[in-house]
Amino acid sequence: MRTVDDFRAFARRLWARRYPDWLASASTGEGALTWPLQPPTQRDALSDPDSVADWAKAWRRFGERGGVVVAWEPRSWASMGRQLLPVRVTASPDAVADIAGHRQQWRIALDAVDLLRRGWPDTDFTGALVRAAKPLAKCTPDDLPRLSGVLGWLVSHPGSGLWEREIPVQGVDTKWFERHRGLIEPLTEAITGSETGLLRHGVGFRVRILDPSLWSGAGEFTVTLPELVTLELRPSRVLISENLTTVSTLPELPGTVAVHGMGFAAPSLAEVGWIRDASVLYWGDLDTFGFQILGQVRAVLPQTTSVLMDSATLNAARRFAVPEPRPYRGEIGHLSVSELETLALLRADDLRLEQERLPRDLVRAALIGC
C-alpha cells in the first residue's frame, strides 16, 4: 500500500524533472501526475483491518485538496464483502507544486507565461519555456515587469549593436541582465527568430603575476581557458580569487600567480596543468556562496587551502558585513572543520562579507603570512 506520505515524497522527487514540460504546456491545461496506489489485498485487510481503514481514510482526506483526484474502485472479497478502495491518485501541476514546496515559484512562472502569451500571442513559446524554466524559477514578482521591458526593447531594436550593459530599460541594471541571460535569450529567440543582437565580452580569466621573476611578459592580462592551459608558467603557488577587483590589488608574493576564478567557473581551472601542479590558495567572499565555490574547487584541486575565509577574518572586519539576500541553505562538501565553523557563524545571522570590503593591511598581512 502506497501512503499519502509516499506520494508527497514522490512528487518532490519528480518536480524538478517534470516542471519544465508542465510550464511549457501551462496554457493548455495539459500535464498531470498519476500514481497507482497499490491497494491492499483481502489478506492484508484480514491481517490488519485498522491499518487498511486508516490508509483509506487518509487518501479520502487527501483527495479533498484542490487539484487532486483520488480514483476509487470496488473490490469483492469473499470474507469481507464489497469494499471501495482508492486505487490511483492524479495531481495537477498546481497541486504538485504545492506538495513539493514550490507554490510561490510556480505561481511566478505561470504569471510569466501569461505575460508572454498576452504580449506576443502569435509566438510559440513551448520550446523556449522548456529551456527557460530553470532560470524562470529563480525570478521574483518584481522581475516580471523588468523581463517584459527587456523583451519589448529587444524586439523593437533588433541588431542594436549595444553591449549588454548598455541596454536602456528602466529598472534593469547590469547584474540583473547577467543573472537572467539564460531566461532572456531563449525567449527573445522565440519571439524574433534570432539572437538578442547585444554584444558581450568573451569569457576570460584575469591573470596577475605576483612574482615578476616568473614571467617576462605583461604582469597582468586576460586569457581564455585554452590559452591559460598553454601558458608556460611554473609557479610554486597559485592564488585563486573569487572577485576581479581583489586580483588587481594583491601584493607581490614570491613564487605566486593570481587568477580570477570568476565565481562558479573556478573549478574549470583544474584543467590547467601548471595550476594542478602548484599549491593552491583560494580566497572568496565570506558568505554561503563563497564557501560553496571553495568546496567545488577543493573537490577538483584537493590541495587547495583557503585564506581569509576564517572566523578571525570575519570578526576583524564584521563591521563591513551586510545581510546576504539569498543565502545558500544546502549542504556544502569538502570543507574543513574550521571552515564549517565559519560558515555556521555566517548562517547564524545571514551575513555576507565581500572580499573587497576587507582592509588592505589585513589582507596583506594574511597573504604574506601564508
Task: Compile the SSE list and pairings.
Blueprint: H1 4-24, E1 33-36, H2 42-47, H3 49-62, E2 68-77, E3 81-91, H4 93-100, H5 103-119, H6 126-136, H7 143-156, H8 174-179, H9 181-192, E4 205-209, E5 220-223, H10 225-230, E6 237-241, H11 244-248, E7 256-260, H12 273-276, E8 279-283, H13 288-300, E9 304-306, H14 311-316, E10 322-323, H15 337-349, E11 351-352, H16 360-368
Parallel strand pairs: 6-7, 6-8, 8-9
Antiparallel strand pairs: 1-3, 2-3, 4-5, 4-7, 10-11
Helix pairs in contact: 1-4, 1-6, 4-5, 6-9, 7-9
Overview of this structure, please?
With 370 residues, this protein is of the alpha/beta class. The protein has 16 helices and eleven strands. It has helices at residues 4-24, 42-47, 49-62, 93-100, 103-119, 126-136, 143-156, 174-179, 181-192, 225-230, 244-248, 273-276, 288-300, 311-316, 337-349, 360-368, and strands at residues 33-36, 68-77, 81-91, 205-209, 220-223, 237-241, 256-260, 279-283, 304-306, 322-323, 351-352. Strand 6, helix 11 and strand 7 (256-260) form a beta-alpha-beta unit.
Short description:
The chain is α/β, with parallel strands linked by helices and 370 residues long. Helix content is 45%, strand content 15%.
Task: Label this structure with key terms.
globular; 370 residues; 15% strand; 45% helix; single chain; alpha/beta; 3-stranded antiparallel beta sheet; 6-stranded mixed beta sheet
